[in-house]
Every structure is written in structure tokens, then in C-alpha cells.
């Protein structure tokens, strides 16, 4: 009899917990936002590589300037460097006086130059953890870049395990077609696909392919210039993707 009364007393105490008590318990039981598993609005997220996942700007500038010396167009330095960070890819080519017909050969040479500096190229802080967290939530991940696949895999290192699809070696202005092909090959509806990049041409390519775009504030293009072109607010850090 005494034990029955004690059990009833305990049950009564549980029922009579106050709302403030419940809020206090909830505060301590709540998971950090980075670890909280929420349903993502996208089934496939594709990433640009250089300037988005990889901190390769210095290697890019060195490779471009080596090509400039060889082919006789302007080097990317001083005032031109500042201008280029606020310009589209086509405008940068005009700024440097790059012959359009030489662009494919120059791109190949730059990939080789960047391959030689691959050991000095690292992922941005937070990228590997974010890729792992996205994959853990069931999101398929892809890379769509003009860089070579072996360069991409070398920099990703162990994070390659989270990437399901690679579309690499894309021509400077061929991303829209590649993104559309990626969407079709994965059989994911365009409205369920997001492209993440750091350049105006990335935003244009996503728009042409009929998929969503989010720009990053840490890449090659100056944030204010990219924001005017991107529409949606820029991501301030890789982890911001987990809050979409």
C-alpha cells in the first residue's frame, strides 16, 4: 500500500511540472544547431570548387600570371586585381585583354600550373565537416568545376567519401550545360537541386539550368558584387548550408 502511494505521488509530481521547468529541461537537452538533424530542402547540392570549397586564389593568380607572361596579355595584379574581384568572368577577360580564341589553351595550361601547386591548396575551414553533415542528412553531393578532377580529389582528400558525382574540366562558360546534364543524370528534379559558387558565372549557370543558387562570401568575387548578382543572401561560412 505504501509503495502504491509513493508511485502515485511520483506520477503526480511529473504531471505537475511547470512550463518554466519544462523550458529549463528543454534548454539543457537541446542539441547544438550544427548537430541537429533537420530535413534539407534540397536532394542534390552541387559545388563549384576553387574559391568555394578550396582556398586556391593565390594558386589561381600565379597560374594566370604565368599564362599572361607566355601569351602576352595583362597580368592580374595591383588595380586590375581589385577590379577583377568585382567583375564577371567575361569582363575579367576583357580587362586583361585575353584573346577569346586562346581561352581553351590558357585554361589547360592553368590547370597544369595549379596541379603543380596542389600541395599548398587547402579546403576552407568548415568545408569537410559541412560535407559530412550534409551527406549524413541524405543529401547527394556533387562538384561542378572547370578544374581537373584529379586536382579536386587531391585537395578534398578524405572528404571525397562524401561526394557522389564529379563534373570537372568544364569550359569557362560551359557550366549551365553541365549542371543541366548533372541534374538529368541523377534523376533529381531541378527544384530539388542547389548550386553553390563564388562567381557571377556560377549564378548565371544555375539560373540557365533552372536550379537554385547560393553564393559564398569567402570566394574569388567580392561579396558586394556577387550579392547583387545572386539574389538570395550569401552564405557567410560553409556551416550556413546546414541551416537552409
UniProtKB/TrEMBL annotation:
Keyword Cell cycle in record: no
Keyword annotations of the record: Hydrolase
UniProt GO MF annotations: phosphoglycolate phosphatase activity
E.C. code: 3.1.3.18
Top EC category: hydrolase
Example of a GO cellular component annotation carried by this entry: cytosol
Gene Ontology BP annotations: DNA repair
Record-linked InterPro entries: HAD-like_hydrolase_sf, HAD-like_sf, HAD_2, HAD_sf, PGP-like_dom2
Protein name: Phosphoglycolate phosphatase
